[in-house]
Amino acid sequence: MTKKLLICYGTRYGTTTGIVQEIEKTAEAIGADVSVVELQKKLPDINVDDYDIVIIGSAIQAGRWKKEPLEFIKKNIETLSTTKVALFVVCGDAGDPQRCGFAQEEYLDKIVELFPTLNVISTGLFGGMFDFKRYSFPVRALVKRIIKSRLPEGEELPEKMDFRDWDMIREWTRDLVEA
Ligand SMILES: Cc1cc2nc3c(=O)[nH]c(=O)nc-3n(C[C@H](O)[C@H](O)[C@H](O)COP(=O)(O)O)c2cc1C
């Protein structure tokens, strides 16, 4: 039977949207029926139990999920304790092997702990992008300073740092849909 998937997510600068599009394309290619909702301030009324798997994702900013996907979980917590749930985050730390463990714990495991009744069957930790020219001047200065402090002395920052691993995103999606 065709699996019905719902993907709900929050983004600030749009990288997460591109990753959601890849998840959608990959799932559809193996026969899933996929609905996608970018969560805005006013949360949509969705019958979450119409779906076999609900994927909830967020961009990470200053160590946190966006508010909207967290609110979406709270709003639907009862149904999401029986429906299968997958969580994913898009962040900079996932692009740094030394920070992946920290990112998994802080951005995913802690959310699973925060909502112990949530029926989480999978988590995905995906690298995003630092696209410095898209940020306001103060944000750019702050983020550049943080990233630079983690680079070897004297190494210049490029205009863009792209940590997206499309193979990993596609593999995670296929494992989830085919499970
Ligand atoms: C102001 C700012 C703060 C960020 N803070 C973090 C952070 O605390 N941890 C992290 O891993 N990545 C952090 N990032 C990287 C973002 O998670 C990354 O750019 C991601 O691709 C953003 O997704 P979006 O384009 O969908 O908003 C930050 C980026 C910005 C611009």
What is the element string, with H for helices and E for strands? Answer: EHEEEHEHEEHEH
Give the number of domains: 2
Structural class, judged by helices and strands?
A: alpha/beta
DSSP helical segment count: 5
* Oligomeric assembly: single chain
| Cα Rg | 17 Å
CATH architecture annotation of the largest domain? 3-Layer(aba) Sandwich
Our measurement of the CA-to-CA distance between the termini, rounded to an integer number of angstroms, reads: 13 Å
CATH overall fold name of the largest domain: Rossmann fold
CATH uppermost class of the largest domain: Alpha Beta
Low-confidence stretches are: none
CATH superfamily of the largest domain: Flavodoxin domain
Tell me how many strands there are: 8
Most strands sheet:
6 strands, mixed
Q: Which term fits the overall shape?
A: globular
What is the overall pLDDT average? 96
User: Into which percentage range does the β-strand content fall?
Assistant: 25-35%
Brief sketch in words of this structure:
With 179 residues, the chain is α/β, with parallel strands linked by helices. Helix content is 37%, strand content 26%. It has 2 domains: 4-128 and 163-178, Flavodoxin domain (Rossmann fold, 3-Layer(aba) Sandwich); 131-162, no CATH class.
Question: Could you explain the architecture of this structure?
Answer:
This protein has 179 residues and is α/β, with parallel strands linked by helices. It folds into two domains: 4-128 and 163-178, 3-Layer(aba) Sandwich (Rossmann fold), CATH 3.40.50; 131-162, no CATH class. It is 37% helix and 26% strand. The protein is built from five helices and eight strands; from the N terminus they run E-H-E-E-E-H-E-H-E-E-H-E-H. The strands form two sheets. Strands 1, 2, 3, 4, 5 and 6 form a six-stranded mixed sheet that branches. Strands 7-8 form a two-stranded antiparallel ribbon. Strand 3 (53-61) and strand 4 form a beta hairpin. Helix 1 (15-29) crosses helix 5. The longest helix is centred in the N-terminal third of the chain and has 15 residues, at 15-29. The radius of gyration is 17 Å and the shape is globular.
